[in-house]
Write a structure and sequence with these properties.
Length: about 200
């Protein structure tokens, strides 16, 4: 299936391509009038509420255009710290800008609980059918940033299945095998093989 990913985050597109293209799909960023669309994100609704809002906005944007009927993908994701329920969660990108990775490390150290997980919710729709999937990657926050691969919280996130390295150190091969994004995209691909709901 040709999938148009409605996101302003190029890293998400690259990671989705790496997972979904090996499963027989193509993925490209949704571009309208030469621009990546920008959506309102009602972050107080959490990841799923934000993803539902983004898919509604994306489908509205392409209604009546030549892209009407295309398979549109949206994804909302974030990191969740065990010590702070639902935080930063859907606010992850804002919190990263406000306090930085060092600010996160400081709060985790103060709390004494380094447990964390990445979560992602993805929704795919052609306007008629809708497929929704979730992905979680368990891990913990490191004592200091390590490695330069990836984006966002990757230099301070140590996935349980990564042998102790951060995603920043583990790189693309490992991240794409075990990440929340791998799981959410794999889940969508599995749903595409079965009748839609
Ligand atoms: P779109 O909404 O346009 O898709 P975005 O970057 O704003 O792009 P989100 O609102 O879903 O995406 O916020 C995701 C944030 O969560 C992201 O900016 C990072 O701070 C964090 N995050 C999510 N997945 C991540 C990953 O795989 N690696 C590192 N940080 C991640």
């Amino acid at each position: 299936m040709r999938i148009l990913f409605a996101t302003g985050n190029e890293n998400k597109i690259v990671e989705a391509q790496e997972v979904l293209e090996s499963l027989g799909h193509t993925v490209e960023g949704l571009v309208i009038d030469g621009q990546r669309p920008n959506f309102d994100e009602p972050k107080e609704l959490g990841l799923e509420g934000v993803a539902e809002s983004k898919i509604r906005q994306a489908l509205d944007l392409i209604k009546g255009s030549e892209l009407d009927g295309s398979a549109i993908l949206v994804e909302d994701s974030g990191i969740f710290l065990d010590a702070f329920p639902e935080w930063p969660g859907a606010q992850s990108s804002d919190v990263e800008k406000e306090i930085g990775l060092e600010g996160i490390i400081d709060r985790v150290k103060e709390s004494g609980n380094s447990g964390a997980e990445y979560r992602a919710v993805a929704i795919l729709s052609n306007g008629n059918q809708v497929w929704k999937s979730q992905g979680i990657c368990r891990g913990k926050i490191s004592d200091y940033p390590r490695g330069s691969y990836g984006f966002g919280y990757d230099p301070i996130f140590i996935p349980e299945e990564g042998g102790g390295g951060t995603f920043g150190e583990l790189g693309k091969e490992i991240k794409n095998q075990i990440s929340h994004r791998k799981k959410v995209m794999q889940g969508l691909s599995n749903l595409l093989k079965s009748p839609s709901r």
